[in-house]
Design brief:
The protein is built from 2 helices and 7 strands, in the order ββββββααβ. A 7-stranded mixed sheet has the order 1-7-6-5-4-3-2, covered by helices on one side.
Length: 110
């Protein structure tokens, strides 16, 4: 598995800082429709989407690329559940894409 140190402000073609957040929304329960605490989808003005669980960035969609946090992308069942929703795929599919080099595992929280 290839690893990188990636800072959101330095992503390829990223011309805006995190202060340019357009929207932060909680994921919603599929049963009740109520917001799920500590599970967030963040959208930046430049279209970059971020999945944050508690205080950790788990996954970033930027410029048709997927970046997963090397240490936390599969941290818990809850993290995996909402990461799967964010990516619209299963953990098995995510693991396969990491292995094929389609997704980059990077240090998003350092």
């Amino acid at each position: 598995m290839q690893t990188f140190n990636l800072i959101l402000e330095n992503m390829p073609s990223k011309d805006k800082k995190l202060s340019n957040i357009v929207k932060v929304e909680n994921f919603k329960s599929s049963k009740s429709g109520q917001p799920i605490a500590n599970q967030f989808r963040i959208t930046l003005q430049n279209g970059i989407e971020v999945f944050q669980s508690y205080n950790s960035i788990i996954c970033v969609k930027a410029n048709n690329e997927i970046y997963l946090d090397y240490d936390r992308w599969n941290y818990s069942r809850t993290t995996s559940r909402y990461r799967n929703i964010f990516l619209n795929e299963t953990t098995v599919e995510t693991v396969k894409k990491i292995g094929l080099g389609q997704y980059a595992c990077v240090h998003l929280n350092k």
